# Entry
Amino acid sequence: MATEIKLPRLGQGMESGTLVRWLKQEGEQVEKGEPLYELDTDKVTQEVEADASGVLLKIAVQEGEVPVGQTIAVIGDQGEEVPEAEEKPPEAEAEVDEEPQEEGSRAPARDEERERGKEASAEETMTGQIAEAREPTKVNGRIKASPLARRIAREKGIDLSELRGTGPEGRIVAEDVERALAAPAPAAAPAPAAEAPTEVEIEQLTSIRKTIARRLTQAWEAPVFQITMSADMARAQEIREQLVERTPEGHAKPTVSDVLTKVAAVALMRHPQVNAHFADETMKRFPAAHVGMAVATDRGLVVPVIRNADRLRLSEIATARADLVSRAREGKLRQQDLDGGTFTISNLGMYGVEQFVAVLNPPQVAILAVGAIEEKPVVTEGDLEIRPLMSLTLTCDHRALDGSVAAEFLRTVRSLLEEPGLAL
# Structure
């Protein structure tokens, strides 16, 4: 019995995803749990596993944006007949940004035109290209182009509005972008020497940047307050160095961020009001600390989560952190790596930032901003000493937390950092 593979919902609020590429081709054997295709969501680009075993009988959607629940492929036994419902042009499903077909137009004509665009050679003369190509079509002000063409153009700095589309109805395909990269720049009249460039560069937001923009807007709608303390990091640095010396070669070495994660997780268990979500006028308090860490990547800021950090040893946290950060920067995070965080730490100390305020990560009720460790003068029992101090700034949702609760939590974090043996 053939199995229809439908686009899954990989997270709350996900309505669609963009198929980037298939890892299997029609006619190939597929095993359940084996990576089948790459999907770009508003948070990550990830490999999606097959949920059935058999032969990949049909790929219904080659690439492009697809709504959740739509059939994108069929898996079954060799020679098995594909269900009738799937016998429709894949591109009609994939191209959600296409204008509706006029009544009386035929799919074969569209396929023929697409093939002409694919077979266009980079060796064609510029005159021939312009004769066959069409001005790119715009829908709601957005240039029609395949996802692969957009990605190549973005990476190579190509302006899609300057290209001629050889796909159906002037749609720009990958070959058009690659041809523009290979072709010499057309001669242009020299501009006056005194004239400065006036063209404004416009960059379309990626899915991740759109998500960041949306969530930051939500965060600024919350009534927040901040409190700041400084922690003496002498003992934490000493213990960390001892642990680094004992870490076997090839294993992840503990960092200050790992110590912070462990300490914050222990503090969250002592102050459950902070280990919570606020949404729809309700509070959800969690029995375990799932600590998110803000990671900067080329595609934007992501917050992978270390789960049950309160129950992990520091070496286990270091291993989990190294894996998540590596996969975040390679663009290989999975949706489950990002879901379920109950608290977030944002550390800019490695950039030399002394102190900053982090923006809340809804529905979480607090986020901790961590600055650099700096040698500063401190008066202790009348004597002046130089101590390694680190700034801790807690941003809180005032709808969920009062100042006294936040201060008690931050004081616990500071005391555990100053004597980490109590937490480790």
About this structure: DSSP finds eleven helices and 20 strands in the chain. The longest helix spans residues 314-329.
